[in-house]
Amino acid sequence: MGLDEFWNGATIELKKGAILARAGWRELENTASDLLTIKKDDSLEYGFDVSVISEEGGRFIASVESSLYDKIKQLPKNDSHLRSIVIHMLCVGFMNLAKDYKNDDSELTNFKGIKLELKNKDIKTWENDEFNPNQVACYFLKHNIKLENDND
Fold it and tell me: How many C-beta neighbours within 10 Å does residue 29 have?
């Protein structure tokens, strides 16, 4: 596992809460909340606008019109409509990522793991001309549609 001979047979006392190791966990697993921050924007008249910011390794910021933001906040966390809105925001974010960072995304270290995961699944990344931001958004956060007669 990369540990050298020094540690073989050693007894180590670990205190509760001690950090044993650190790693780039974002490279292995991402969630919508890792990628997207939603904030109210009173200057917007309609809908939302998604930007890619490079601070802290990069993420999407969705600026949302105030009445829509208030309604979004009222939806339960597992609501399918909320999920669809977030998928749409992610799609726009990935579209902007492809537009603004296609040739150089080196400052967006948080997206490194996402790119690796997509490549491992043979899904085109934002570097590719056939990149499909909607497909990628739905890969990370799938649509859930519950039918009235659906008992699952």
Answer: 9
Confidence of residue 12 (pLDDT cuts 50, 70, 90): confident
Angle, helix 80-101 to helix 133-140, in steps of 10 degrees: 130
How far is residue 6's CA from residue 21's CA, in Å, rounded to a whole number? 16
pTM: 0.74
Distances (CA, A) of 123 to 10, 93, 119, 136: 45, 17, 6, 8
Residue 9, phi-psi category: left (phi > 0), alpha (psi -120 to 50), beta (remainder): left
Among residues 78, 80, 73, 89, the alpha carbon closest in space to that of 35 is found at 89
* Pair of tokens at residue 71: 């309604």
Which of 129, 86, 94 has the alpha carbon at shortest distance from 111? 94
The number of residues making up the chain comes to 152
